[in-house]
Request: fold
Amino acid sequence: MAVSCGIIGLPAVGKTELFSLLTGKTTSGTEIETGSARIPDQRLDSLEEIYQPKKTTYALVDIVDIPGQRLTTGSEAAKNEREFLDAVQRVDALVHVVRSFANEAVWHVDGSIDPVRDLDAINTDLILFDLQLSETRLERIEAARKKGVKDNDVEYEVMKKCRGILEEEKPLSTGEFSEQELKSLQNIQFLTFKPLIIAVNLDDEQMTSGKYPKREETYKWAQEHGTQIFEINVKMEKEINELDPSEQELFLEEMGIKERGVAKLARAVYASMGLISFLTAGKDEVRAWTIKQGTCAKEAAGKIHSDIERGFIRAEVIAYDKFIECGSEKIAKEKGLYRLEGKDYIVKDGDIINFRFNV
Ligand SMILES: Nc1nc2c(ncn2[C@@H]2O[C@H](COP(=O)(O)OP(=O)(O)OP(=O)(O)O)[C@@H](O)[C@H]2O)c(=O)[nH]1
Ligand SMILES: [Mg+2]
Reply:
């Protein structure tokens, strides 16, 4: 299952545009939509050239476009709100699109361009949402305790702790929780526990000049909140996608776009969730697999197939850079650069792995 990201933000900041840039899907923008984005990976491109496989499979990120009513305030029908909350609670990470682009024709809910104000506004909404959630849980726990149920001590204490953090207007991700406490929270979908990523949506002039209102403060905000941040010109990237591939590079350079938005997003998501990829390469398929940092070889094998995990014998491993220096599997093998690793080996980003197994 791919990692999922929910796109949130104020109305008319470019969320649906970003969704459609990432997924290639066009939508009305009024409904919650899901799609997936292919994560570009230069390493796969190089391996593809070397192996000439039947297919190349890039890692995917699932993207959910969540229309921009405020999280707790100002949303219209109760039904929409429920649907909205379900969608936002299900995702692994939140991508907050903040508007910086100037465009007289597109209104801003608060009348002017101010990324820091918008960051604070959405942040407050996320915190308020969690505060409500913690209060509802506490009421339920307290009601049960009055009836004599006392086996919920851990949850009771941790929920009060959560409420305390939220009352101080801090996201739960800033709190310190023991493993036992985290376990008792794992079925509660608090939003401020989810990694938050900021996407600042720039216009052409801002992207080429690197200047826009409150840029420094925006970065400072991200740093203080421990949040990944990246800049993107959604509209221009969409237009460039419509050009002939041979012209795209030229335009990207001209517009000051050094890296594609999807690559920036993927990097931010992986960094904030502690994810890495390992690679498999052969004549049939060249492929990237997403795992948590710290995953051992046997468990990584299970990503591919449960049989490979069950029958795991050894992992033949070579770091991507070492492989590329050799230029082919044959040379790497002749040089004895493939290592044989056991089930407890901790897989590293960019490891090319061939699992030996027995079923
Ligand atoms: N100039 C400029 N206009 C943009 C950009 N992104 C979006 N717009 C325009 O802003 C308007 C709103 O964009 P959407 O992507 O629909 O906004 P949204 O955030 O999905 O809005 P809601 O779904 O209503 O919350 C559209 O008219 C877009 O063309 C951008 O990067 N630059
Ligand atoms: Mg929209």
In short: Residues 240 and 250 are 10 Å apart (CA to CA). The chain has a mean pLDDT of 91. Residues 9, 11-17, 29, 67-68, 101, 103, 106, 201, 203, 233-235 surround guanosine-5'-triphosphate (ligand 1) (CB under 6 Å). The two ends are 24 Å apart (CA to CA).
